[in-house]
Amino acid sequence: MKRILGLIILFINLAIFGQDKNYEFGKVSKQELKEKYYPSDTTAKAAYLYKNRNTYFSYTQSKGFSLTTEFSFRLKIYSEEGLKHATQIIQYYKPDKGDDEKIVAIKGYTFNLSNGKIEKEKLSRKQIFNEKKNRFYSFKKLAFPNAKIGSIIELKYKLISPYHRYIDDLQFQYEIPIRNFYAKISIPEYFKFTPLAKGFYYVQPLRSSKTDTFYWSELRKLEHLKKRQLDKYEVKFKKNISEYIATNIPALKDDEPFVNNVGNYRGGISFELKAIKFPNSAPEFFSMTWKDVSKKIHRSSRFGKELKKTAYFAKDLAPVISNSKNDLEKIISILQFIKSKVKWNQYKGKYVDKGVKKAYKEGSGNAAEINLMLVAMLREANLDANPVLISTKDNGIPLFPTLKGFNYVIAAVKTPQGFILLDATDPYSKPNILPTRTINWQGRLVHKNGGSIPINLTPLLHSSKKNTLNVKIDENLSIQGVLRSKFTNLFALNYRNKYNHLQKEEIISKLENKNNIEIEDLKISNKYNLGKPIAQLLKFSSDDMVENINGKLYVNPLLFLATTNNIFKLKERKFPVDFTTPWIEQNSTTVQIPDGYVIESLPKTLAATLPDNQGILKFQVTQDKNKIKTYSILQLNTAIISPEYYPILKEFYNKLTNKQSEKIILAKK
């Protein structure tokens, strides 16, 4: 029944799309140009009126199979914010070593309506810029001429890739909506790809097949005639075709806070190569379980073999661990040594590039070189260490066994208390305190024999920010105060990465702008002592935190530490709330009552919890002689909260913001 219903929906889409088959590149209608907003989403800044893709294999005898993808779209700009789409970027693979992908047959236009007439301006070569992104990728930047609000731009081009075993993911959703979508993927019968659906939006394909032909020739020597003969051959094969057709695809909006990576939820298809089988030859299999994936990576000369290399650091290791009294001290000493010895060159990767030995000698390397080096050194120190394959946040969450799913490697040490995770690419990382980019659900720990097990990457320890604030109000209703703050774990790592490279004056300026205060002095302790929390002390003043209304003073008991706006504004939420780590924010303030005033009212005590011990909230204001003391704590005991709990979480935050918006009221004696 579900299959029948799916086919009915598909054929309805086919019929609707068929009505729009008058889409002809280079010809737009006045009706399209007059359109002031996108009917299905009036908030859209721009929209694809048509978005097409056609991927197919080509064959030449000299080069074998290659992969060609033709892209085209028609895009309407509705607002000032939508004008950013008038600059298009096409990324393609162009490594320093190896075969390049190529972008060819670029053709583009800008259309405007002027005095009732359609004006068409061609994208010229001068408006196409070539830029190199890194050692592996380049991109073409296209600046469409005379684009303005109301314009329509059109673009088509071809991407030709020699890497026919890798079909780029098919994306159904973008940050703007799509009115008409069509994609066609044609694959020769020799290549067995498994289409893997991902995200929250799916388009049911229409599958078919047809016969195709490729040709090859062979120069054959005729011994009896003492000459050569060119023999030509024709090979017919079946081509498997999948067509994806849809209308009015909604935008994938990144308007919710605490989303891991909105791309994780983008509707689309990944194509995983399962097998290659040519006539009269044995099949070559690629389809894998997660264990197969880890074994294949481990067998690579750019992974497993690198772990066995130790001679290059042998003489340096002994002094590093000579004073270590236990395994934890060994781990910390080796981690800190690697971080000081080899700097991360900002390249990710599960495979080494130049190799661990060269990276060690040169003092720089990619993530794999640094962390495989770390594993090797930990093993040499008689620790039970192994690499852990992971997918960084920007690479998405690998839901299916795939080589492409992992793009990074960290280290793990097994101890009686559990696993200790390590990443030596970040100068401020610690045992079990990883950079945010690496905290992405699960990784795969790879044993020495290539076997593997899943391992959780989400921190178990709370990260905390604890503030102690003491202030007094002078006769001019200005506030002078001292704020002491402590940051631990991931909060400390992020603080160090944000501020350690800045001058003191720059930090002061940022903190003043953030909190609307004037800072007289700032001291930061333990900037480089990773064994201790970051300790920040600042002396400040402010003229804007006390309101005088009819002789009464109104003061927020948390002052600028208060959370007065609920960050969760949507009625419902599709994506999990991802805080990255469990966390605690604790505020303790003391406000000295100014001479001549007494307390008229204080905010009442509040206590609230989330279900299943996911979080707690406490808020209490009390009087202690001539001082008003406030204690507030917000504690989230889980890093990830599922969408089903969103309404409860939103109400929880409503209680927080409403309570922290309440004021102390002081009246004259």
UniProtKB/TrEMBL annotation:
Domain DUF3857: 68-194
InterPro entries: DUF3857 (IPR024618), Transglutaminase-like (IPR002931)
Protein source organism: Tenacibaculum maritimum NCIMB 2154
Domain of life: Bacteria
Protein's name according to its UniProt entry: Uncharacterized protein
Transglutaminase-like domain boundaries: 320-423
Coiled-coil zones: none
Pfam families in the cross-refs: DUF3857 (PF12969), Transglut_core (PF01841)
